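Lecture notes, part 5. Sequence design as translation. It can be helpful to think of inverse folding as translation between two languages: the language of shapes and the language of residues. The source text, in structure tokens, appears below.
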């Protein structure tokens, strides 16, 4: 295992003012951990999905003024990138770490997943724990708790995913920063692995009617 565990600096860096100073701290601290996680989870996710998975650490290269509010490593079946495909992520905001599966607005598979999501909604609700969070916008750190969601909430996500250019959905857990810092590297990897195992059937749903 490469991952050495989260530290306070990995979360505090998001309070640093200015793009360059924040990026310097991100590269020196959190990006190291994300790279480690990327290496650790490539074989784990390959086994869970049955497809070779490749890690992609966020570089935030397009930013010219605004510093990032979060950062992540994502895994997909493509060596070239992850945004076009259903993918898995581990990352951090100032307040928490997250472990997720999702499809963002750049993927041509949004409509497929939206259809499958509604068709298999009862199965999904039985499979995912009640505390899992659903995010219709990956830029917003506040998700909807699944146990509090109504049918209309799921239908709204699916409709937006299928019909709007910016439609997307991320699903998973958060680990508050204090807890993430206290977790040993082994314990964090175990927690994330269990979460990805729970989310893996959603990945299969996204590929159930078309193959990209």
């Amino acid at each position: 295992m490469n991952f050495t565990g989260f530290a306070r600096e990995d979360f505090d860096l998001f309070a640093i003012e200015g793009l360059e100073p924040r990026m310097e701290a991100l590269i020196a601290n959190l990006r190291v951990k994300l790279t480690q996680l990327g290496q650790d989870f490539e074989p784990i996710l390959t086994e869970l999905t049955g497809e070779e998975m490749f890690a992609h650490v966020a570089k935030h290269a397009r930013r010219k003024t605004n510093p990032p509010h979060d950062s992540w490593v994502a895994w997909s079946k493509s060596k070239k990138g992850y945004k076009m495909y259903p993918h898995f992520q581990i990352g951090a905001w100032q307040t928490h770490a997250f472990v997720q599966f999702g499809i963002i607005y750049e993927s041509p598979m949004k409509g497929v997943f939206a259809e499958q999501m509604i068709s298999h909604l009862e199965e999904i609700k039985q499979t995912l724990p009640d505390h899992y969070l659903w995010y219709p916008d990956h830029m917003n750190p506040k998700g909807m708790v699944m146990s509090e969601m109504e049918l209309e909430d799921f239908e709204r996500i699916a409709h937006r995913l299928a019909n709007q250019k910016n439609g997307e959905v991320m699903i998973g857990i958060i680990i508050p920063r204090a807890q993430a810092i206290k977790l040993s590297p082994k314990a964090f990897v175990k927690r994330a692995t269990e979460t990805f195992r729970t989310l893996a059937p959603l990945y299969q749903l996204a590929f159930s009617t078309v193959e990209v």
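The translated text above is only one of many valid answers, since several sequences can fold into similar shapes. The chain has one domain: 8-206.
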